[in-house]
Amino acid sequence: MNKIRLYGDYHTHTIFSSGTKGNLGRHASQTPEESAKKAYMMGLKEIAITDHGLAHYMFGIKRSNLPVLRERIDKLNEEYNDKGLKILMGVEANLLDFDGTVDLDDELMKYLDIVLMGFHYGIKTKNFKEQMKLSILPQISKPFKKWHAKVTERVTDSYIKAIEKYPIKIITHPGDKIDVNIVRLAKACKEHGVALEINSSHKNLSVEDLIKIKDIDVDLYVGSDAHKLERVGDVKEALRRADEAQIDINRIKNIYIE
User: Fold this and answer.
1) What are the CA-CA distances from residue 225 to residues 11, 28, 229 (Å)?
2) Cα distance between residue 25 and residue 52, in whole Å
3) Considering Cα of 53, then 58, then 64, then 68, what sign does the dihedral take?
4) If we measure between CA atoms, which residue out of 49, 45, 18, 20 comes closest to residue 34?
5) Where is pLDDT greater, at 131 or 213?
6) Distance CA 85, CA 26 (A)
7) Which of 18, 126, 167, 192 is an S-S bond match for 22, by CB 3.0 to 4.6 Å?
8) What domains lie within the chain, and their CATH numbers?
9) What count of other Cβ atoms lies within 10 Å of the Cβ of residue 92?
10) What is the DSSP track for 171-238?
């Protein structure tokens, strides 16, 4: 009997998602070493450590911890590469404003193997006023159908601008927290070679979203978004939604059939 296997979990957090003034372990409880061991025991071929981006005041990785995490991941690769597991250092970067600005810079990029990007609350930037517009307008416009539709298109534009500007591999939980036009976003992602995530810890991509983009040949990834060790590699909920939406299994790029 054929069985679906997870090749790699590319959305996991560790104690380095600690906040710019927080203590290690406040947001996610597992260490990179624990995550790598769990991935190896599960038979994964790859795992990405994608802690929250620098601009996340509550949960972002500290800039001073970038070389620390890079060194620990390099040591893990020395231990596990011969055993068939590759550990990637990534980041779940933050969409900051309607202009599509993301909290990536050259210094950060030199440490990274992979970039994920999504929208989160709790961001603090120099352009705080513009960031707050992106956070607030999608919420206060909801009771007003026409206004909300316009704001949703602006949000979608911001995602598209971001994937045009930055080397983003996967958009995480699109439509979570703030609405997007998922059809427009999927078409743009297909054009730019960017994937959309079916997140096992959040409701997006939802079954409804997946049905809407069923005929758009955009790449999909299932992600655990693990903040606890037991959640590493757990993508059952994401696969359930994909199955309910009758998504072609070949569209999901980090699974295989054994």
Assistant:
1) 5, 10, 11
2) 13
3) negative
4) 49
5) 213
6) 27
7) 18
8) 4-257 (3.20.20.140)
9) 27
10) E-STTSSS---HHHHHHHHHHHT-EEEEESSSS-S-HHHHHHTTTS---EEEE--BSSGGGTT--HHH
